[in-house]
Design brief:
coiled coil, mainly alpha, 0% strand, 74% helix, 13 helices
Length: 289
Amino acid sequence: MIMAGNLDSIDRVRIIRQELTKMAAGGAMEMTSDSSCALLRNYFDFLEQQLSDAGAIPDVSQIQEMLLEVSEFIRSGKTGYYSDEYGRILKRLVSIYAGGFSSSSSSAFTLTSANYADVVEAISNRFPGYDYTEAMGQLLAYMEQLFANRKSDWKTIYEHIISMPESVEAKRLIKAARFEEVRQWAEEGAGNLFGIRADLLEVIGQLSAEIDQLNADIEHLGRAWRTGRVVSLAARRKANEVPALIEARERVIHQRMDKQNLVELIESNIEEFEMLLRSARRAFFFHIV
């Protein structure tokens, strides 16, 4: 067993990850509570170092993988823990992820917050009687940040929250904090808003390019007519196409305007949902005061 404080090399981090993964998969005998706690302390020491070291560039993928390994280990039932030890895990993670709300904090906190939510959910399903209010408040804040930053993981946090047992007191409190409205938005496709907006903007770009080409064609043919360079019958017929090109341009302009109106509607929905997430978080804190 590698004890806390021995995280001075990539190899040692790899070894403790292999040990935890093996335990979760049932490939080793069940750990004692002390050895299991020591293993997770190594994990959390490394995670805290990665997330909080201002001089380091966190490996977001590695942090995500390690948090997933922790949640799988908890769900495996092979931790050997008593209830108070799960409580210490929760408090340690809450303490670590509290660091994500300072002005100088790394974006890695937000980018890995959905994996943090996964661990919180795993603990809640084993011991729903804990006080999850602080963790829940953090998850709501990270969910709001992810949506504001156009990251789809906001919905992953939402899904972990609704997967927590109904007996969790913090979950009961969020239901009184407009979270049912959040649920309705999520179920009606709030997660698709950014994708729809991106698709519409792509179509608008294509229509704009088509309008530019029609403008160029109209200008070219009109200039040839005005300068008297239309000398052949074929060229004269081509110049006579100008009215049709102008009509086609008007149709495309109207199509683009329709798409732009849809984008404005989508952006209005995005803004409304952002305000709802903010309101739900504030209402949650109001209920726990």
